[in-house]
Structure formats: structure tokens, C-alpha cells
Fold this sequence. Notes:
Elements: H1 2-7, E1 11-14, E2 18-23, E3 26-36, E4 44-51, E5 57-64, H2 65-71, H3 80-91, E6 97-104
Antiparallel strand pairs: 1-2, 2-3, 3-4, 4-5, 5-6
Amino acid sequence: xxxxxxxxxxxxxxxxxxxxxxxxxxxxxxxxxxxxxxxxxxxxxxxxxxxxxxxxxxxxxxxxxxxxxxxxxxxxxxxxxxxxxxxxxxxxxxxxxxxxxxxxxxxxxxxxxx
Length: 114
């Protein structure tokens, strides 16, 4: 995820405790709280961070489209054109991934395998 964010000008640097991004022209620091590595069972990887200035906690997930769709709550299902694009790419033999982000409450941090 970091390589893609860097390519588009959002990611600046990372150390063992924090990552630094450019958002709306400002450099922001996020504390790394948890990471869930990709596994063949989950078919996704996740990073949970806390925004230093606001204290808000976010979960970022990248993985197989079929897995990410199952993680979405009602009303967040991908738009039809996104589903069509994923299907078209799959028919061409290309691997597809989806990316999702959600703000989470601190008390939920330990409840799920984000």
C-alpha cells in the first residue's frame, strides 16, 4: 500500500512507529497501531493507524475483491461500474485487488481481524 501511496504523492516516509503522508497539502503523522500481514486464508493485508492531530483511528485494507466486498457494510457496496471493471479485468486473466478504509472506534480495535 505504501508504494502505491508514494507513487501518487501521498506517502512520504515510514519508521517502525509512524508513517508520514501528505493530505490536502499538509504533512501529517499517523501512529502505526497494528498490522495484519497477508495470509492465504484472509487474502488481504491491513494496517491500523491513529492520526496524531485528531486521535482518529483508521483501518486500511487491501486484498482480493471478493474478500473486501464481504467486509463492506450495507450501503458501501461497490458501484456497478467498479464491479464491471473488476469482472472485465478478471476475464482477461488479470489479478484484481480492492482497497478500503474505515474509521473505527478505539474499543473495536481488538475485536476484529482487520
